[in-house]
Amino acid sequence: MRFMKKLQNYINGKFQPPVSGGYIENIDPSRGVPFSLIPDSSVDDVTQATEAAKNAFPMWSGMSLNQRSEILLKLSKGIEDRMDEFVAAESLDNGKPVSLARQVDIPRAVSNLGFFATAVLHFASESHYMEGMGINYTTRKPIGVVGCISPWNLPLYLFTWKIAPALATGNCVVAKPSEITPYTAYLLSEVAAEIGLPAGVLNIIHGLGSKAGDAIVKHPDIKAVSFTGGTATGAYIAKTAGPMFKKLSLELGGKNPNIIFADCDFEDMLSTTVRSSFANQGQICLCGSRIFIERSIYNEFKDAFVEKVSRMKVGIPSDIDTRQGAVVSKDHMEKVLSYIKLAQEEGGKVLAGGHQIKLEAPYDQGFYIAPTIIEGLSYDCRTNQEEIFGPVVTLCPFDSEEEVLKMANATQYGLAATVWTSNLKRAHRVANQIHSGIVWVNSWLVRDLRTPFGGVKSSGIGREGGWEALKFFTEPKNIFIKE
Ligand code: NDP
């Protein structure tokens, strides 16, 4: 076993143990062994954090925009200055390749803070003049204390995606990262202390969703909750926080279609589809796990895709040429493997992968799954309806636009979709008819932080990103002045 670091909560600018004194083991998925301990926090820790946030709110919200912006830019820079440490921590905690954490996760956390630190300087509210009567103007004030709860797949990336707009608009935050991947959130609290973020403005609580997370959702003084995670958890949060009239932003699961027409740029589509299927071990809510291929190129696509995927290196996350690391936990690995079994029971044929991979010691207890491609399933079977959230995709041929739209739209989810075609009219037509919050045409995961981000149906309510996030974290008030 390597070092056993003990993480602490960050409350009111101080590092402190949980009130209960209990800790939970945090597992390194690449080896399947614990490497740190995290606080098993409860309602008592959340109460302390909320008190601290309430006390800090008048000072933080009363600060000038420029001052707040400068502090958040320092937070962003503080992560950048410790880039190597953050990259290693994210990979160790999550099992993702170091190369991915370096290219995507940590740079994006830096950008999230930088983006909202400066976006808020340009955020203006509306005024509406009424001819001969007077003028309405709208003010936007911070809400107060807000809760931010994030998942394990893109830990610091999604944590900062919430915290940055919440803080930029003058709120004080009680935040909880996933208990499975708490490490970079802990490092963020170290940076917050280093750069002198005023005490109580950002409080980071570690622990279980069902205890610490639940306490955030239920605390009467936490007036808004921004949550990213599974649809079942989102439904529970909506049911709990709804009657308390809390503002809610829920970014939930996906089962995204990747629609490939025969007239696409084949090579571009193929290499992007490998990424959109298996990046981060398929554990991105935006991955295209249902691949629909126009029948005339089905076999050509299948052969080329299987060949490329079979060559992907599954290996130790720290190896520079590893393309697929470990999935996040033993439970999750077993869930994904159970879906592969289900797919076979439903009549699916495994074309690649389909099994766990055992690496050599000391990685032989790690959670590795071969990237898996399955064909021969109906669009409405469980494998094609339920979110697997792992390195598993299905292939399904189609004959017409009408047919593929019917299949693509036939799930409860509606987060993102990808369309591959060189026909501009068809691109617009299909993109407009897909039930989802995001559509990428001839691309995938191109992110502009100004754009609305989120899903429809069971993929959530509300949007993050750009003005949407700044609006969510502020309360508008309209004032009318008679002429
Ligand atoms: P979960 O819903 O299990 O957990 C998300 C977060 O909520 C974690 O911090 C978790 O804590 C916490 N939590 C769990 N139960 C409660 C509760 N009762 N009250 C308050 N908080 C709670 O999701 P996962 O972490 O498993 O993440 C994977 C899911 O996230 C997938 O469904 C994926 O699609 C979705 N996702 C959606 C995205 C989007 O933008 N739409 C982006 C990324 C992921 P703990 O981990 O400690 O249990």
Pick out its properties.
globular, 39% helix, 25 strands
Word description of this protein:
The chain has helices spanning 43-62, 65-81, 83-94, 98-119, 155-168, 183-195, 209-218, 231-241, 266-278, 298-310, 330-345, 401-408, 424-433, 466-472, and strands at 5-6, 9-11, 14-16, 23-28, 33-39, 127-130, 134-142, 145-149, 172-176, 202-204, 222-228, 247-251, 257-260, 290-294, 349-352, 356-357, 368-369, 372-375, 392-398, 413-414, 416-420, 438-441, 456-457, 460-461, 474-482. It is an alpha/beta fold. Strands 15-18-19-14-13-21-22 form a 7-stranded mixed beta sheet, with helices on both faces. Helix 6 (183-195) links the parallel strand 9 and strand 10. Helix 2 packs antiparallel against helix 4. It starts with a strand and ends with a strand. Bound molecules: NADPH dihydro-nicotinamide-adenine-dinucleotide phosphate. NADPH dihydro-nicotinamide-adenine-dinucleotide phosphate binds at residues 149-153, 158, 176, 178-180, 208-210, 213-214, 217, 228-230, 233, 236-237, 251-254, 285, 387, 389, 415, 455, 459-460.
Q: Give the count of helical stretches.
A: 14
What class would the helix/strand composition place it in? alpha/beta
| Integer average pLDDT | 97
Tell me which ligands are bound. NADPH dihydro-nicotinamide-adenine-dinucleotide phosphate
Quantity of strands, as a count: 25
How many strands, which pairing sense, and closed or not: the largest β-sheet? 7 strands, mixed
Shape category: globular
Strand coverage percent? 15-25%
What Rg, in angstroms, do the CA atoms define?
23 Å
* First-to-last CA distance: 74 Å
Q: For the largest beta sheet, what order do the strands appear in spatially?
A: 15-18-19-14-13-21-22
Q: List low-confidence stretches.
A: none
Helix-residue proportion: 25-40%
